[in-house]
């Protein structure tokens, strides 16, 4: 029997009008044949309606997927276009910067080369100064050595002068004794009278000779004293000279060490500058390569822009393909609604098992829809999800067929708002994901999962009622 009405009268015509089972053959074979034909027609009608429902569901699903991927394609195209423009602008800017950097780097390279040459020249000058300092230090050492030898000679001269003083003092002593002897001889000659006159003359001569000798020794003493004084000054001067030369030598050694340290540092600087010059040349080569790559990027950006235009055109082509599908979907949906209206007539009523089958499909479809919603939230990726309650599998059936059993109708009417609210969760999740609010998306998904239990419970109850289990 149909789920909408059950025959209660035995009148065959009334039964025939409701396509109820009766013993039509008893009354008329033609009536029995008419009943069988009408029954077969109802079965064909149910089959056509089922096919129409399946078709409109598949087209709705296909239209949803096409629109979804068309939108993705458009978004990808827009993103690629924006990225291409950004890359192109960045490439132009990078190319401009590269040219400016190249010019500045070339100037820097030339400066580095000049500094390297100047550094080499400074190093050579320092090296020459080092050699001169080494020679000067050697000369100073030789001078100190010669001065020390002179010092020894002056000391020896002082000893000789001292010995000469001793000799002069001895001569003076002998002269004094000779003078005394001459005086004694003169006295004795005077005593001798005429006989001593010759001795007196000799004595006078000897005394004069002694006086002369004394004068000479005195003069020699002054001369030796002058030599001794000059020698002492020379010794002091030599000592001062040696001390000064040693100080100069120490300073020269210190300067030599500083100069050597500077030479080593300048050598390191020169080597570093040479390395920097080599590195600068490598950087110059890299900049030239970068300019070449930048040019290649601009070319590829042009190609990518053309591909983006083609991609956008393909997206529009998909939209154009989807438009006829929308028309077909609308036509099929209208046809299903017409069939649903026809199903109110007894001749086209749906059998209980067929109605229950549609409810079972609705339960499976909603479980699958909820699984897709959970996947979208888990993967944080927008997938095709029907948010229009009129275009899902159950929606096409719900808005086309209306049972007239009061116990089912009450639940059936309430189901419309519940079904609409259930699909609204999908829109809320998608909006939350677009906003990047993953926490809100998860909360809405949990709420949808809880709410689906109520919706599926109502569908299960309707299915049982349609099967006569309630």
Structure notes:
With 470 residues, the chain is mainly alpha-helical. The protein folds into two domains: 12-94 and 321-466, no CATH class; 133-299, Methyl-accepting chemotaxis protein (Helix Hairpins). Helix content is 88%, strand content 0%. Residues 1-9 have low confidence and may be disordered.
Outline of the structure:
The protein has two domains: 12-94 and 321-466, no CATH class; 133-299, Methyl-accepting chemotaxis protein (Helix Hairpins). The chain has eight helices and no strands.
Summed up, the helix count is 8
* Beta-strand share of residues: under 5%
Order of helices and strands: HHHHHHHH
Q: How helical, in percent, are the residues?
A: over 70%
Q: How many angstroms separate the termini? A: 16 Å
Give the key terms.
470 residues, 8 helices, Helix Hairpins, mainly alpha
